[in-house]
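Journal club prep, shared notes

We agreed each person brings one worked example of a sequence with its structure written out as tokens. Mine is PIPK domain-containing protein. I'm keeping it raw so we can talk through how to read the token line rather than staring at a rendered picture. Sequence first:
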Amino acid sequence: MPWLRARFSVTAYFAPQFAELRRRCIAGGEAAFITSLCRCRKWASRGGKSNAYFAKTRDDRFIVKSLSKPEKASFLEFAPAYFEHMARAAASGRPTTLAKVAGVYSIAMRTQGGAPAGAAPGPGGQGGGPFRDGTIDVLVMENIFYDRQISRIYDLKGSERSRFNADAAANPQDAGAVHLDDNLRRSNLQAPLLVQQGLLRSMEAALWRDTSFLAGLGVMDYSLLVGVDRESNTLLVAVIDFIRTYTWDKQLETWVKASGILGGAGKEPTIVSPKQYMRRFRAAISSYFTVVPDGHEVEPPLDPDAP
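Then the structure, token by token:
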């Protein structure tokens, strides 16, 4: 295929706020961030069901994900609250479980004479890569598994509906497979996830603050991403996919699934109201980890209904 001349334009949303966040949170600061983004490759994420386009920087530090129009609109609406929440966490020294969003951009491409016949569709819809005229909205987030030897990955929502990955269960040695809630419930019967009491309560406290913040914004359908690093005997956790708010289409999805029209064996739908989602998520996450006594009296888990 002959080479094409193309013009790109990039719109950076909330540029000063993201620059300050990167300064605080990214080793090497802005220079390291730009260097990472200069070299990316398409990445086949194995965790979600969406048709989103994914890429990963070649140094493995950042993940790029395309945003749908509703996701972009939701984020732009609650972005000021997100920056305030992250700033409060940094100022107080209290941990947060929210995966750090490093930037949100719109990238427009225009070629001389448009796309050639047979060009692959662009991301944002729909297969392929960015090979024709158009605009794609993307979010850049940290890769919480950067520089780690992860042996197992879990994507946890606290739901019992359609939360079993049979392929992952059949291939337990596949470190890239993404296990879901029911996979973890089954594996916990033989090999529970053990966490020291102090660390678990610290994680719970951060998770309660973050989920309360998300529920206040009307956000639901997020996940707790968990990575098991057997070499260092640690768990890495982060809340991901917290961009979408509870809009009319999500409410409709809740009603359809709750009605049983699509089956589901009477189980509660994955998508419920933000407050319901927060409570269910908290209760499930608390039950997924087993406390290792640390010499102190075993404390009960936090109340899922706490504000």
